[in-house]
Amino acid sequence: MKSPSSAADRQQSLLAPYLQLLVPLVLAHMLQSVGGLLDGLWVARLLGITGVAAISSFFPVFFVILSVIIGLSAAVSVLVGQAWGAGDFRAVRRVAGTALCVAFVLGLALALAALTGAEPLMRLLGTPPDILHEATSYARTVLVAMPLTFTLWTCMALSRGAGDPQSPLWAILAATGVGAVATPVLVSGWGGLPALGAAGAAASSIVAQCVASGVLLGRWVRARHPLLADGLRSRDVRFDLATGTRMMRIGVPASLQMLSMALAEVVLLGLVNRHGSTVTAAYGAATQLLSWIQFPAMCVGIAAAILSAHVIGAGRSHRVPAVIRCGLALNAGVTTLFALAGSLMAPAALRLFLHDPASLEVAVGMLRTVAWSVVLLGWSNVLNGALRASGIVLLPTALGMLAILAVELPAAWVLESRLGLPGLWWAYPAGFGAMLILHSACAAAHWRVRSRAVRVAAA
Question: Could you report the per-residue pLDDT of 256-265, keeping only the tens digit for each?
Fold first, then answer.
């Protein structure tokens, strides 16, 4: 396996390294979305509305946990990317050891808390009494598996940061296939197995994650990955306090920004709900399709962070602006194509979820209003990813949260009062546009100061 720093240093164009990261990342996100959709369809078909409600009642907790996982993954990708770009495999293993320790401890804490705290948690969330038992079983099963979940996501982040996004893709492909088969078996108890109900969907996820872990580890072994070159018994594979501190400085702000975005969605959903169930259904269907349009916008930001970390680790920080420019151009092309395809296919695709003409019209209007602004989000993600890799974390995070809480949400209230329902949809472009402006100003200021420092040092 070649060090990706060689690709970043020697190739005239950064397009090939970008695509080597971006394509597997987008495909992996698509597979995860398909897996979630299949699980939902099986639960709806086999358990009906009560099963769907039991799983949905856990979503607020899931979003918080997902924010933590994404923050940790972002930090791991940057730190291992810098070590990998420098060709310092001891540092790679040190980051890996620290990340795995942090991931396992966080997962274990959640698992232990779930043993006695799952039911009180679901009561606190206001779960209806008729689904409390089913929801508690599902929540407990999901939370008990958190050590595995955190560890698997961390290993995939390590692999991507080390320039190998293909292994996580194959792992997720295997998990999706296994989950599609295991979910109906465990939910309904086919083949003499006990029927687990909603908890069967969570148990299916555990089985799928075990398979994914095996696939990922198997590919590492076959590729003689440096993480395994000296065996996991290497003294470098251990918790390192300094590395852990750097990890928290990157991961915690990233998690907070994810939480602020989730909070904004909750507030917007509350505004949408005031317009009745028809609009709520349209909003839910449109956001499903929008998530697919957002895949390249999210993934190009991840790729920008990893490639920036590689060139910084290799001692070629002056190449980061080139990484940014290539990422901005790639986002403009790929995300625009996704947005255009989504807009053109919106009526046909949304009919899979909506049969009422009124709700279909609302959903199409929302999607076509918001889709183009996802390009702005992608540009912002590229800048944010490069800044994160450069060690600038708190300010971009604060600016992103400012755009969400001080622009997007107020815009929703103001525009709804003036334009009616369409005003809610225009809040998304307003928020994404504000985020792009703020992150652009932050990036420009950072590189201006850095260039001045380099000139002074050279003089």
Answer: 988 888 888 8
